[in-house]
């Protein structure tokens, strides 16, 4: 069960940026341009996926600002206890032994969070630091973001954006999810070949 958080913005569009490079420099750090997104209308969402199954999507609720972002308490209350616990039990009953994947954000790796997983007998899949290439849900986020941006009437406030995001997730097909999960062998091979550097994924 792959999980992740992501920001979804209104106006998340970028023009083309052209870089001059050699053929073998496609994913070198010096030939990449980081993306910095700025928008007053944005939401953070949490979702999870499995092969053949689209998990729940949660629009996270927290005040924002200094001290108001995601932390251990909010992660455990808004996702783990409220969503993950029930969905994981449903999937375990249906499929047997499964692992839960999350990245290494501090709220995911805190002592309290680890204790929650242990108490609820949910095994964690090891996830190396700084390796979004190794989580297929990173690629899945492109689908709902694109659907939100293609709406004929873009959201004009937070509530409209929340509704648009939830509707986009509902439209996301299991076929699209599985096509990303099925690329895991290729992604692992690419990461090993690049010695942990950038890949086309």
Description of the structure:
This protein has eight helices and three strands; from the N terminus they run βββαααααααα. It starts with a strand and ends in an 8-residue tail after the last helix. The protein has a three-stranded antiparallel sheet, sandwiched between helices. It has a single domain (2-6, 38-193), classed as Ribonuclease H-like superfamily/Ribonuclease H (Nucleotidyltransferase, domain 5), CATH 3.30.420. With 201 residues, the protein is of the alpha+beta class. It has helices at residues 72-95, 106-109, 111-119, 137-140, 142-149, 158-171, 174-181, 184-193, and strands at 2-9, 42-50, 53-59. Strand 2 (42-50) and strand 3 form a beta hairpin.
């Amino acid at each position: 069960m792959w999980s992740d958080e992501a920001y979804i913005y209104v106006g998340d569009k970028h023009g083309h940026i052209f870089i001059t490079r050699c053929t073998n420099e496609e994913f070198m750090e010096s030939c990449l341009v980081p993306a910095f997104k700025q928008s007053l209308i944005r939401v953070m969402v949490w979702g999870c996926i499995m092969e053949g199954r689209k998990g729940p999507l949660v629009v996270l609720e927290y005040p924002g600002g200094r001290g108001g972002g995601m932390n251990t308490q909010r992660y455990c209350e808004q996702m783990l206890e409220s969503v993950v616990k029930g969905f994981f039990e449903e999937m375990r009953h249906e499929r047997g032994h499964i692992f839960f994947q999350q990245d290494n954000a501090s709220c995911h790796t805190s002592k309290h969070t680890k204790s929650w997983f242990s108490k609820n007998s949910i095994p964690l899949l090891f996830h190396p630091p700084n390796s979004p290439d190794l989580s297929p849900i990173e690629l899945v986020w492109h689908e709902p973001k694109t659907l939100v941006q293609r709406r004929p009437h873009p959201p004009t406030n937070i509530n409209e954006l929340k509704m648009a995001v939830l509707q986009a997730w509902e439209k996301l097909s299991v076929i699209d999810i599985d096509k990303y999960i099925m690329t895991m062998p290729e992604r692992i091979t690419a990461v090993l070949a690049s010695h942990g550097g950038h890949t086309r994924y």
